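Section: Multi-chain targets

For targets with more than one molecule, the full set of components is provided together so that the structure can be written out for the assembly as a whole rather than chain by chain. Components appear in the order listed by the source. The example entry contains two components.
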Amino acid sequence: MTVEHSAGVPADLARTVETHGKSVAAGDNAAVLADFLPDRVGQLIASAYVPPKLKGAQVCSITEVGSGRYDAIIRYTKLDDRWFELRSRWVRFDDGSWRVWSVRNIPDTPPWMNVTGPSPDGLDAPHWEGLRAGKLLLQRCRRCQTWTWSPRPICPACHSFDMGFEPVDPVGTIYSWTRTWQPFAPESTGHLPYVVVLVALPAAGDRRVLGVLADADGVTPEIGAPVRGQIEQPPDERHWPLVRWHLEKQAR
Amino acid sequence: MTGFRGSTAVVGVGATDYFKRGTSPLSSAQLVLQAILAACDDAGADPRSIDGFVSYAGDSSEGLAIGAALGVHEVRWSTQVWGGGGGAVAAAVNAAAAAVFSGQADCVAVYRGLSEASDGRGAFNKGHMGHLYAAHGVLAPAQVCALRTQRMLEVDGVPPSALEAVALAGYHHAQRNPKAVAYGQPLDRDRYQNSRLISEPLHLYDCSRENDGATAVLVVSAERAGDFRGIPAHILSGVQGAASGWTESAENEQRYISAGFHPALVKRLWAGAGISAEEVDVVQVYENFTGPAVASLIDFGLCPPGPAAGEFMTVENLTVERGRLPINTAGGNIAEGFVHGIGLVAEAVRQIRGGSPNPVGDADISLLIGGPMAPLVSSTVFGSAATV
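Its structure, encoded as tokens over all components, is:
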């Protein structure tokens, strides 16, 4: 593989990245940690997922991204010859050495969290069952037709006890968003950073739902941007399907 | 104004040291007891004469157990504010004042203690992030407050520099507070901006700490305040609540980018205290995160909304030396230490009573703003003797 360095990549950076890849592949944790910016070692360790045994590392590219920072893509080969890639951002530290500012697995994939499925109070159970049936269901009063989210035991508008769930077209706009970098749970490792969007759904009286924005690596979302939801099937039976959101122009 | 105004006062403040989370040598209950005993010492009060206990946010030390450990003569009032995490901190003070004002107790201890060894990791957050959040990777209050802050920045046009000013003001004040966790660790623009991102737009220094520790204050009737040591901080007014459509709705709150202090609530606070926003001398504003603190000051009319917030929210303007509105004068949750915001109560009182590391000259009105963007929010106005 040919290494694609953009013009002007410092030679000492190229050497550092090369050595870093070899340290990761060799499982030399002390050497790897020494490459991290000291104020974020914990965050970096938990950001990228790296399988326990690797047999090789190949620097694919080093690209300047502005402000004196560079992105390096390193391809790691597993024992079974399958590979995966990490993209690390490098910055010159106070002591003159190049250090890792951030790191992530690419391409980006959304996390599957351990806390999922119906809440202990059961109020949202039809929503989750709906996802298994391939539909986004939100709560709606059968008497006064008011959409309610999150679910309530009675209708706050008319006090009816006859609350139902109805399918909603998963099309809306971004009401707000955040890109999360901190590993708040072990399951987020390998998926950080990920973007969560709060989506307003016109088809449900502008009720808002949370979800991960798919394909958000390198994307700065904009409030008001149209998004479309797709139900993604979980990797195993323990998890429940989830609506992932796609910027409208990317929706398939 | 009502008969409640100035009828009660804080006459004692006590605090433990702040410990890095998980390192307190004392249990959560022992920390609370140490803080209450320190508050009694500050007041010159007999700990056995305490007859009321108030806490909030699921404190693991129930009032009756604390009363029993102190060997009090009688427990007449034991209550906890429901829900809202740190949003209930001022509500707890208000509940104590309500008990004393209505004659249901004579001397009420308001306290909050946290010890990770006793209470577990993230005890301040228990039960707040349900499945409709967590399944989508939203596990921490930082992420919820980030979502709301992002809309405040992007839609309302509040500049990010307003957030930075909150963090830097707290750190500035902490440099004169030897008890502060950030004492001796000044924060400048570069370090703030180069700190790691937690959940955009929040950087590390936009986020409060997590500490072991406890703080307590004693509330008595203003008539009896002279029986205790020191200068009383009168409770002029207090509010708590959640507007219609605000609370527990998985990010469907109306007025989404406010901190939750809706206009009717703010109006009631000022009316109760008989003051306007311009008369506030110093503010302890709960910064779970800097964004919610900015939103709070906007809600209270202490800071203009939108882009103009950037002109008001400067380090110079928020610090004691030359500021129009000094905030978080002991360092706040971000730089002094975080035990669910109870430290802010102590500092709000000390600005009237004395003992602040950064006293605001001739402060007569000291405002406490509890946990913004929480399901429940609350606030208390403390006043000097001159205000009563």
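Residues 8-116+207-382 of chain B form a domain with the Peroxisomal Thiolase; Chain A, domain 1 fold (CATH 3.40.47.10).
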